[in-house]
Amino acid sequence: MVDLKRQYGRFKVEIDKAIQEVLDSTAFINGPSVKAFRDDFARYLRVEHVIPCANGTDALQVALMALDLQPGDEVITTPFSFIASIEVIKLLRLVPVLADVDPYTFNIDPAQIEQLITNKTRAIIPVHLFGQCAHMESITDIARNHGLSVIEDTAQAVGTDYIFQDGSRLKAGTVGNIGTASFFPSKNLGCYGDGGSIMTRDASLDQKIKTIVNHGSRTKYYYDEVGVNSRLDTLQAAILRVKLKHLDSFHKARQEAARIYDTQLGNIPQLSIPARVPYSTHIFHQYTLILEGSDRDQLRDYLKSKEIPVMIYYPLPLHLQTAYKDLGYKSGDFPVTESLSRTVFSIPMHTELESEQIEYICHHIKTFLKQDE
Ligand SMILES: *Cc1c(COP(=O)(O)O)cnc(C)c1O
Q1: How far apart are CA 199 and CA 152, in angstroms?
Q2: Measured between alpha carbons, how far is 209 from 203 in angstroms, rounded to an integer?
Q3: Which CATH topology does 247-368 take?
Q4: Which of 145, 166, 169, 354 has its CA 20 to 30 A from that of 2?
Q5: Smallest CA separation from ligand 1 atom 2, residue
Q6: Which CATH architecture has domain 4-100+107-244?
Q7: Secondary structure of residue 108 in the 3-state scheme
Q8: Which ligand 1 atom sits nearest the alpha carbon of residue 127?
Q9: pLDDT tens per residue, the chain (373 residues)?
Q10: From CA 288, how far away is CA 106, in angstroms rounded?
Q11: For residue 184, how far is its CA from the centre of ligand 1 (angstroms)?
């Protein structure tokens, strides 16, 4: 699905030098690269405060901890996402309340949110799935009207632009109260291990989040609140500084691959290519198609037999996962999500895709669908 080895090959000299500098400095924890990356990333996102942390799941957990919620408080999010989105809500003894997604963008449907708001609702977590933003203007309007906080899960959309109705733009993760990012290796801005960050424009949230990720401490060995240990590794920060410089060119390479996929696969009746919306750019963390009137799992097996990787994001919606049975949801509660989990598939998408590889992939998709007619 990704080709990290060839990408590393292209930037080897720069990256090896950055790693060597950290080794020579032996400043492995909170070294200068961490602060430098924090500042570079804040500049890139045009946001006042960035707090680096250990991974994207921690980023979500810390963001929720910073809101001072009480056990039993409700947080609205999507059932069509990676598990982290609801896991952290549950861990903090909060209640995940799920809203179905839009069938074209796969993102949380704002029209479903309002009816779920109760006097216990405190926050909304939209997940900008596959590299495209959820409809943030509707979501922040609802949040403002009901006094709720918005945490944007930007794990799959670091660098995506949200485009307001007046044409102005903000980076994903800087529109709501708090944004979270993951630098897991396969993400668009991936490091060579785990990494994450939290973004906010709010100076008091920044102070609070900085304290929480540092064991709840402002002064060494004095603890003001219960926190966690969540740091971005200095080696990872050094690698991320190099890769951040190339992030926009990474997006362009993915968008170009998506364009070729579109022209090859756009006219096949059984397939829907990824929808584009006027309110967001798309950085194609995944290129995800919908297959109807043909067996998705047979197509996947056929492509695998041709050595084409295919992934299903996500095969079982969050509300039907065993660990979350006690939320009381059942099959049929989120028809759009449930239908997508049976019909979507994602094909290779990364910065090193060559047009011959794309041809090969599309050729075999078409061959299978012709035979299947
Ligand atoms: C990857 C991902 C996360 C978690 O990030 P980690 O760095 O792996 O902890 C959270 N939410 C979404 C939507 C993701 O895709």
Answers
A1: 9
A2: 10
A3: Aspartate Aminotransferase, domain 1 (3.90.1150)
A4: 169
A5: 155
A6: 3-Layer(aba) Sandwich (3.40)
A7: strand
A8: 13
A9: 899 999 999 999 999 999 999 999 999 999 999 999 999 999 999 999 999 999 999 999 999 999 999 999 999 999 999 999 899 999 999 999 999 999 999 999 999 999 999 999 999 999 999 999 999 999 999 999 999 999 999 999 999 999 999 999 999 999 999 999 999 999 999 999 999 999 999 999 999 999 999 999 999 999 999 999 999 999 999 999 999 999 999 999 999 999 999 999 999 999 999 999 999 999 999 999 999 999 999 999 999 999 999 999 999 999 999 999 999 999 999 999 999 999 999 999 999 999 999 999 999 999 999 876 6
A10: 10
A11: 7
Taking phi first (over 0 means left), then psi (-120 to 50 degrees means alpha), and beta for anything else, what does residue 71 get? beta
153 lines ligand 1 (CB under 6 A): yes
**Binding site membership of 188 for ligand 1 (Cβ less than 6 Å):** no
Distance from residue 270's CA to the centre of ligand 1 (Å): 30
Number of Cβ atoms within 10 Å of the Cβ of 301: 12
Q: Which atom of ligand 1 is nearest to the CA of 194?
A: 7
Taking the centre of ligand 1 as the mean of its atom positions, its distance from the CA of residue 89, in whole angstroms, is: 14
Residue found by looking up tokens 């079982």 in the block? 316
| pTM of the complete model beyond 0.90 | yes
Please identify which residue in the block is written with the tokens 């009207």: 145
155 touches ligand 1 (CB under 6 Å):
yes
